[in-house]
Each structure stands twice: as structure tokens, then as C-alpha cells.
Design brief:
Elements lengths: L1 H15 L5 H15 L1 H13 L2 H11 L1 H17 L5 H22 L4 H7 L6 H5 L2 H32 L3 H28 L5 H18 L5 H16 L1 H13 L1 H33 L2 H19 L16
Length: about 325
Amino acid sequence: MLAGAIIPLGVFTFLFSFSTSVAIGLVLQALMGLAADADYSACVKLITAWFGKRSRGFAMGLFLTASSLGVLVTNAIVPTVLQAMSWSAVYQILGIVTVLIGLVSFAMLRDSPNTRVCAATAPPDLKALFDNRDLMCLALAGFGAFWGTWGFAFWANALMIRGHSLSPVSAGFIVALVGAGAIAGKPLVGLISDWSGGIRKIPIIVCLLGFCALLLVFGTLTSEFQFRLAAPLLGVAAFVYSPLMGAMVAEVAGLRRAGAATGVTAALWQLGSVVVPVVVGLVYQATTSFPTAFVTLAAGPLLGAVCMLFVREGRGPTGEDTRP
């Protein structure tokens, strides 16, 4: 499943470089999106099967540094690379690299015996997932968290360029610092959660409230120096909830439903990243206010923290440690 998601993503990314019209570009972007997040469910299922509850937080944190590394590399390299080559060449390179990663994954990764045992049982009941109150609260919390994280990732460059006249390279470097902070923070928060006995709920709430506060602070900054100082801290807060939330979804659902539960919740989380660019764009267009745009972003993690209050932390649905 992992290779079956990554390889098509690379192929569609490569083909996007040859788009000759808006219609073709939209179709290829939709195909890229169809493949882009299926890898996440497969990876969470693998981690849930191979690692127990008291070592899963660090494993998830290490795995999810990938998204932060993507933010760092993209914003540190792409603005400069675009000055030397065309956008189509950049997409061709990304597509080829992605296909190669998919082939390596297919050759190197192995399913856990626990996964094969679960596969021999009846398929997971999707209705039971939607009836799970804790899982739905986690889905809403993730929606709010993604609203803030990916709204910032999508809009931060443009807001700093338009609101404070920073150059594209300077704005890209600041967002890259956000990614750097997340790379350090994700494994660390996962390790702390494991050391505390696998506690997830309270650290997630603390992270989301801190994220909300830092977005509000970031919206009041005015100079490039201030942005550079705040960016790594914002990076820690903007991403560190994700390994704990991902692990908690699998633990609430249980190993047999971990893949399906991750897919369902991730789909709802992604709605936050889909809706927020439009909303922030409309708010900024109406107000031309840099602080107001960041207040709009901060509303997401605040909603996430409130939803997390209603999640009951505990073992899997049958009382197990979600790993046979």
C-alpha cells in the first residue's frame, strides 16, 4: 500500500510539469492529491504494529519529521532554485525522487506479523469508527490543528511579503526556520510522552494552546529579525502535536482498525488545510491586516484544544495495548 501510494504520486508530479492548460493542471493536481496522503495511513499502521504504546510516541515523532523536513527543504531551496531553472524542471526532479523513494520503500519495508494476523480477521467496520466519540473528537481536533499548521505554511510567505515587504528568499528562510524547529520538536515530544507512560491528551492540549498563542504573537511582529527569532518556536508548536495525535488515533481505534481510522481522521484533518487558505485569503483581502490574518489562523488550534477536552484517553477499544 505504501509503495502503491508513493510511486503514483511521483508519476503524477512528474507529469504535472508538462501541463499545457489549467484544466490539465487541475486534473493532475487532483490525481496527485488522491495519492499524496495514502502513505500516511500505511505508515501509521506499520508503526502501530511494530511498536508498543510506550515506544510508539518517539517512533511517530521520528516518522513525522518528514513533513517538517519537507517544509524546511522546500522553503530553503525552491525559491533559490526557481531563479536558476524553470518550475517544470523542479516538478520533474521532485517526481523522479518520489518514484525512487517508493521503489526503495517497496524493497526495504516489511509488514509486522501482527498486521498479517489482523488481516486474516473480518475487515474493519467503518460505521463503528464514525460511532466512536473519541475518534470523532480527535478528527475535529486535528481539523483545527491542521487549520493553523497548513494555513501558516500556505500563507506565511505571502503575508510576510505583502504585509511587511520581505523578499521571497527572506520569507522562505523564515518559514524554513519553522520547519527546523518542528524537526527537533517532534521526536522530543514523542519521547517525553513515552517516558510519561504513553500519555497523549494533556501534551496535545498544551501544544495546541501554545500554538494558538504563538500565532497571535507572530501576527504582531514587524521586522525580519523578530520573525527569525520567533520562527523556530512557532515551528515546535505548529507541528509537535501531530505524532501524539496520530498515535492516539491508532490507540483509540485499535490495531485492526488503525489504518482505516487514520485514513478517516486524516481526511477530516485535511479539510482544515483545504478550507483555511480560502478563508485567510478572504480575511486578508477584506482587511489587509497582517494581525487579523493570524488571528484567523489561531482560531484553528484553539478549536482543537477545546475538542481534545472531550477525548477520553485510555487503551484500545477492547482494552488491549493496540498491539497483539
